[in-house]
Amino acid sequence: MKVAKTIKSVRVAIKAARKAGRTIGLIPTMGALHRGHISLIERSGKHGDFVVVSIFVNPTQFGPKEDLAKYPRPLRKDLRICEDHGVDIVFVPDAKEMYRQEELTWVDVDKISEPLCGRFRPGHFRGVATVCVKLFNIVQPDIAYFGQKDAQQLAVIRRMVADLNFPLKIVGCPTVREADGLALSSRNRYLSLQQRKDATCIYSSLKIAREMIEAGRTNSKTIAAKIRKIITATKSLSSIDYISIVDAETLQDVSRVAGRVLIAIAARFGSTRLIDNLTVDCRTR
Ligand code: AMP
Question: What percent of the chain has pLDDT over 90?
Fold first, then answer.
């Protein structure tokens, strides 16, 4: 496994793989790798890709009051995980390598970036889209793998790749969860025991919402109110950013559930902000 810190060295290594006829798979991450990230790595490996993992805590997607400075960076452990899972190259640039000069060029994906997390994290998706474009241009992958856990990020990237004609396939991978349903996240480590226990209400309320839809309920307000009731009953909840039922592709609110919808939640336990979602396809009911 090669560890590349510079754009130049990662390009050289990938060029050789491409020359040998390999399909290049990219998994962009911010490190602190867990089974969620590993599921993306395995998906790429199973597809037979030359597997490239990037580890970069991207400063441009953090707001001024967010957790950039304290975001976990267990690099040695991450490299071991990559090695153990057959990764070919880990690209670990520092911020100076990725942003060599004042960034004057940004990628904004309108509309899809605005609702849900976009309302609470201004500039976040602009940072995400821009760093992904940079990574796509550096690595030039044939396939890039993203988790459904960050459903809005996946939708933004899919749309950007379509709008800007990137010669690249985006593969969305299912959310990996703890045994009690909590979606794995690098931020779960911030939770106290009580918060960790309470946080399971996010997924259990999503499942109840799905059951309501499957039982024929279509009023989004009623479904969201049920989720709110479950989550607010927990002790350590500090606030709810949103509980939204949106069209799974456009991410715009729907008042009546129809087609493919995304039920999405962002809530804070203590100061830790957690997100999760479920997609329900009413067309297959
Ligand atoms: P991050 O390091 O948090 O930026 O995540 C890197 C990639 O891993 C993104 O595409 C995430 O959606 C994905 N990911 C994070 N958590 C999970 C999870 N629990 N299940 C599946 N994919 C995940």
Answer: 99
